[in-house]
Amino acid sequence: MGWELTGFALPLALGLLLVLAGVEDIRHREIAHWQSGGIALLAPLWWWQQGLSPWPGMAAQVALGIVALALFALAYRFGMMGGGDVKLIAALALWFPLDRFVLVLMVMSIAGGVITALMLVDKHLSKRRDIEVPYGVAIAIAGLCCLGEPILNPFA
Prior knowledge:
single chain; elongated
């Protein structure tokens, strides 16, 4: 097994964990701690594989994860997001530098808006009183899109 193949192992693991989190959020409206924890625990291996220096590279990633956790914890506090969603986005923040993470947030917002619109249509058609948006799906979609983009688009 060459370095080329092992270089895909961590992104593949991240992708698998994101898919599992999205599916679980659809089925049960919650995301398991081990999924977000696994994403967070694999991030330092990714940093090492990418050749990030401890300062400022790794420190910046940890800071970004803490800032994401704090900001999205506010959304949780005001009932706009579930706790599993907050942990998932904070763990995902550890994988992307700031400029790429902003792209993750933009894709997440668009995907979340589409999912919310679909849920509202379903609510209207089924005459339900309230909806619970599986926002982990939007987070997973954003992570997968932004993870795959540099691999699929080498000219970016």
